[in-house]
């Protein structure tokens, strides 16, 4: 489900192209993605961190500022 806090197993496999957890961890490290090891051996990867690292949502956050020339600077 896409609205969960952490990536699910299928998303983690898709992102890393790895099935085994040690290989997934190695790939995440190489990509600069922070993760934690859970007690059961699974990896906890914050969805928000992945989205931030890959630039998701930047278009929504960027606000274009209207350009207004500084006409007063021409008489300086």
Task: Give an account of the 3D structure.
- This protein has 76 residues and is mainly alpha-helical.
- 39% of the residues lie in helices and 5% in strands.
- It has a two-stranded antiparallel sheet.
- It is rod-shaped, with a radius of gyration of 20 Å.
- The relative contact order is 0.14.
Order of helices and strands: HHEEHH
Spatial arrangement of strands, main beta sheet: 1-2
Which spans of ≥5 residues are poorly predicted at pLDDT below 50?
none
Please report which band the strand proportion falls in: under 5%, 5-15%, 15-25%, 25-35%, 35-45% or over 45%.
5-15%
Mean pLDDT: 87
Helix-strand makeup class: mainly alpha
Rg on CA atoms, Å: 20 Å
Highlighted features:
single chain; 76 residues; mainly alpha; two-stranded antiparallel sheet; 4 helices; rod-shaped
